[in-house]
Amino acid sequence: MITGEKRHRFYKYSILFIAINAVFIWFDSFYFALVPFLAAFVLLAIFSLDKVLLLIVSLVPLSIPLREFAPGSPIDFYIPTEPMLVAVLLLFVYKFLLEGRFDRQIWRHPVTLLIAVNLLWIGITALTSSMPIVSIKFFAVRVWFVVAFYLLATQLFRNPDRIKQYVLAYAIPMLIVIAYAVYRHQAISLFDKNAAHYVMNPFFTDHTSYGAALALFLPVLLGFAFKGKFTPNQRFLLWVLIVVFTIATILSYTRAAWLSLFAVFAIYMVIRLRIKPVYIFSAAFLVLVVIAVNWSSIMIELNRNKQDSSQDISEHIQSMSNIRTDASNLERLNRWNSAFRMFAERPVFGWGPGTYMFQYASFQLSHEKTIISTNAGDLGNAHSEYFGPLSESGLLGMLSYLALVIGVMLVGFRLYFRLENPEHKMMALSITLGFTTYVLHGFLNNFLDTDKISAPFWGFAAALVALDVYAPKTEK
Predict the structure, then answer these.
(1) What CA–CA distances, in Å, run from 426 to 58, 88, 151, 396?
(2) How far apart are CA 462 and CA 155, in angstroms?
(3) What integer pLDDT is reported at residue 1 of this predicted model?
(4) What stretches in the chain show pLDDT beneath 50?
(5) Looking at residue 459, what is its pLDDT?
(6) CA-to-CA distance for 192 and 226, rounded, in angstroms?
(7) Most buried residue among 64, 200, 398, 427 by CB atoms closer than 10 A?
(8) pLDDT of residue 473
């Protein structure tokens, strides 16, 4: 019950805030109005960090780069999420130093150890970087992503039902982005393919990161809809999300997202049909032999393909193998070849995390450049989560990342066969398949330096680790 003294104090502080804010507004400064929100965030973070994490995840699809508000700013980050993530990181470090405890089962888990190795090497190569400031910022961003979306998320997921909350916290606000993108798409060009590249701005920088995020969630939402424990209204919402995400994925014209979804569906069928690994490896070996034997013929056929990316979906899919005239494919090859040349010059420590876009220009060859090539370093990175680290952090940079994603996938698939609870089995499989879409997508693009992809990527890894550590205890 609010006493007279508390009411008096409330009115006193309210009047004081209004007076101070009025002074700031008089001098054309509106930032003081954010103080109550910052105070509320700090209090929430201190007393209920799990709610702060879900709040941040819900804001990730709606976050906007700072450069949209301050084009000339020397730094760029996503607001409001990244300042909030920095605050969470500082609070995490403070609590850890003060209390000195964190679940040792998580610390000792193989996936956590693989993440630590990858982070350690990124930190080392940041110190040997050709551009230390750029690399240290890259390392810091990776740290606050991992702390919030992986370490804190594992504790949130002690209760497996919180995994559903995490997924829906991202997916439901994503409907706003989809509605915005679809509305702009039809208004600008009646769903023309070229407009699909930018209609999701400023929430997503381009259609490839947008498509990657949609593909990450589709397998998870499908798994929840078929096997999850939900009320009828919640299940209806899940199907609405599935239909909208599917339409948005098609309209994104993101070939890498389409390809990754086709691939994980094939993986799902292999698992459901319980095809023995020996048959899978035998078939894969046979395919590799056939490709090796017919390599010259395959390259001739690929060079005959002149189908560029197209409004027609079947032609757009066919353009995936066009390495002769499709500018997007040729530019990707140009970026990859530049990354290989950078690696050849600095194979151990690389050029430094986050430096590819500033260093690759001199490694381009004139005959490999395309109509969309640039020396300015303003049109993306190496277009690969594997070749980017290879050039930026050397061989160990690529191998440590590769070991990490393989480790997460192995944990996920092993959980599916080990867990007994049907809902937990569904979670393990659908989250692993969602995670795998980005593992495959990562061969063609790289977005782990953004909150849009880091939230599901590290969050899904955390969900699988939490299921591995905590779920068997709840099933006994």
Answers:
(1) 23, 31, 23, 34
(2) 9
(3) 46
(4) 1-2, 10, 307, 312-313, 315-316, 321
(5) 97
(6) 34
(7) 427
(8) 62
Token pair recorded at residue 314: 């079947």
Q: What confidence tens digit (pLDDT) does each residue in 162-171 have?
A: 999 999 999 9
Question: How confident is the model at residue 42, as a pLDDT?
Answer: 62
Q: Which two tokens stand for residue 292?
A: 């090796």
Give the pLDDT of residue 316.
47
